[in-house]
Backbone:
């Protein structure tokens, strides 16, 4: 017997079972409800706010863990990178300031636009 | 534990971690007031004392870093730092940025060129005064 034949046999059997007496159908429905009620206990009160928050955003079916967790990780990651970069910039500024304050040349040599231009002109002339 | 509970727990954990990260970002464990500096730091940074409380937090942290480098500097360098500190702190942020930019550019030059800069600076000043 191949798969198709098994399929049609099962279909036939299931179709026969549809013609249940109303009491039997009602009992089946009640049993199903009961089973579902057992499967879904009340949410823990401590995290009920998370449920209501998600409820307003479309429910658990609307936003799944598959979306939320990566987004949360991404945000945390970006915040981390930003903080690190900020720290690097500050460290670099500290380094350069320390060099400038101790340099052989006075601060004016680096502040004077005229000197910078003069150096450029001379540099160009020497080439 | 069913999937719903697992979701809730993970979401809670994620939000908690996120909130912790944000809080850590905004919390300033030390305000770096003048009184919080060590005696040695206060001594090195004394030219900045009057402006200290008006300085932004990043500047204070930078100066504390420089004060911590100070003991390792040669005597001549220490003297230069003392002499330049106040002027440097009183420059506008734009002026400081320009000086740093020029320094970065000039520091890239060869050692030979760097040596000549001192002489060129003297030459330039003599020419300017003429």
Residues:
């Amino acid at each position: 017997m191949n798969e198709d034949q098994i399929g049609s046999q099962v279909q036939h059997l299931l179709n026969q079972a549809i013609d249940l007496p109303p009491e039997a159908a009602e009992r089946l429905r009640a049993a199903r409800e009961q089973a579902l009620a057992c499967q879904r206990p009340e949410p823990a009160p401590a995290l009920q706010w998370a449920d209501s928050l998600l409820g307003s955003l479309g429910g658990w079916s609307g936003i799944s863990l598959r979306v939320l967790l990566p987004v949360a990780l991404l945000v945390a990651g970006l915040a981390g990178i930003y903080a690190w970069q900020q720290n690097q910039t500050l460290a670099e500024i500290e380094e350069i300031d320390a060099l400038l304050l101790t340099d052989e040349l006075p601060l004016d040599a680096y502040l004077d636009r005229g000197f910078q231009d003069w150096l450029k002109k001379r540099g160009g002339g020497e080439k | 534990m069913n999937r719903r509970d697992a979701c809730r727990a993970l979401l809670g954990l994620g939000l908690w971690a996120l909130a912790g990260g944000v809080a850590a970002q905004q919390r300033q464990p030390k305000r770096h007031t003048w009184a919080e500096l060590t005696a040695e730091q206060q001594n090195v940074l004394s030219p900045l004392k009057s402006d200290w409380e008006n300085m932004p937090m990043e500047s204070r942290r930078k100066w504390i870093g420089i004060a911590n480098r100070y003991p390792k500097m040669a005597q001549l360098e220490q003297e230069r730092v003392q002499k330049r500190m106040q002027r440097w702190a009183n420059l506008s942020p734009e002026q400081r940025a320009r000086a740093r930019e020029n320094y970065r550019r000039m520091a890239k030059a060869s050692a030979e060129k760097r040596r000549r800069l001192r002489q060129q600076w003297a030459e330039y000043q003599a020419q300017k005064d003429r």
